[in-house]
Amino acid sequence: MLPRQTRIMTKLRELALRNSSTNSIVGNQLKHRYGFHTIRQTCTEFPRKLKKTERKPWVTNINELKRIGRAERKERQIVRERILQPPQNGLLVNELIPVAHQVNADRIQLFTCVSKVAQSIAIYSCSVCGEVHLGHRPHKIRTCNVMGSAASKEHCWRRGAVEHVLPPVESFHLYDRLGRAVSHNERLQVDRIPAILELCVQAGIDLPEYPTRRRVFPAYSISGRVIDFEKRFPKEDAPGEDIYACGFWQKRNNISDDNKSVDMQPCDLQATAVRGMEAWERMRSGASRLMETYAAQTCGYCSEIQVGPKGHRVRNCQAYKHQMRDGQHAWQEATIDDVVPPVYVWHVRDTQSEKPLVNELKKYYGMLPAVVEMFAQAGASVPNDYVVMMREDVAVPEWDEEKLVV
Length: 406
Known about the structure:
By secondary structure, the protein is of the alpha+beta class. It has helices spanning about 1-35, 60-75, 95-115, 160-165, 195-205, 255-260, 270-290, 335-340, 370-375, 385-390, and strands at about 80-85, 125, 130-135, 155-160, 170, 190-195, 220, 225, 295-300, 305, 330-335, 345, 365-370. It has ten helices and 13 strands.
């Protein structure tokens, strides 16, 4: 009786496999015929916009931060000397100095390439919510859902510029990385420079217009306090020399000044886009490597960032419940997206098509960072990290096929 049951189970298994293969073939034919889309790799969630009441996700678990804080408080109760390692002791990490120079060079080249490609690709920005679109025809997707927007949630488009693709993120320049934090009364006396440039300066780049203290002897930690046995102002360091005293009324375009030193040879648009894409990848990877050693702090509710071991004390936060903090920022560890924020835009597959992206088919469209989308439209190949977000394997149905899609 057992062999008979075995034969029956074998026949049922073969029948099930035959039916499943037939259904898969028919399903694939229907997908290609009616524009059905697969959900194998295309269900990657796009970066979600945080609400005004939400805090940025912690890089380190909050329980781990509490444990580290308890250990530090217990360590401060014991009066003893603790040897610090670079860069906590004020010295530079020699292995990261070439990385800092490379990141700064990639930053200058990236801005130059974006400025050149922006002359051929239109940039649009919503005057209400600030959303960005790249391409000749702005999309019709109704995602303008902020205070002051229209009832239809349609965007009010206007021509944008390079700062909409590469938004400037500034940080206070610190003369002494281990010194005290910038106070509220000093907010107009300390220069603000791009955060990525400040990261490179602290990692080893020397700029005459932004002097930085370079220690020869390391600092030590005694009972939690950093003790510096080196003179405050050595003889070879003249305080106040080469410092440009400028206020907030005298704006300085630091990025454009740096770009003057880059000599871009006349070439086609695609070659410029390829160089810009490579500079974007190298800059982000190099900055991530620097941030593993040189810390940066960001506010958990707003876009303020301070490169250094601690945040500043300027009370200019206007985010969620800033009254409870007296305008001070809720500092936490920063990520590469805080230093170099990617502006996500809708991906346009066919740049030659005159039909704009419509709201009814938005779930079939992909998204890319604005820099990557601009270079992709100019002819550069998209890196593998962004291929899934493009949703190129999703068949976008036509308007008459929309009702046939499930």
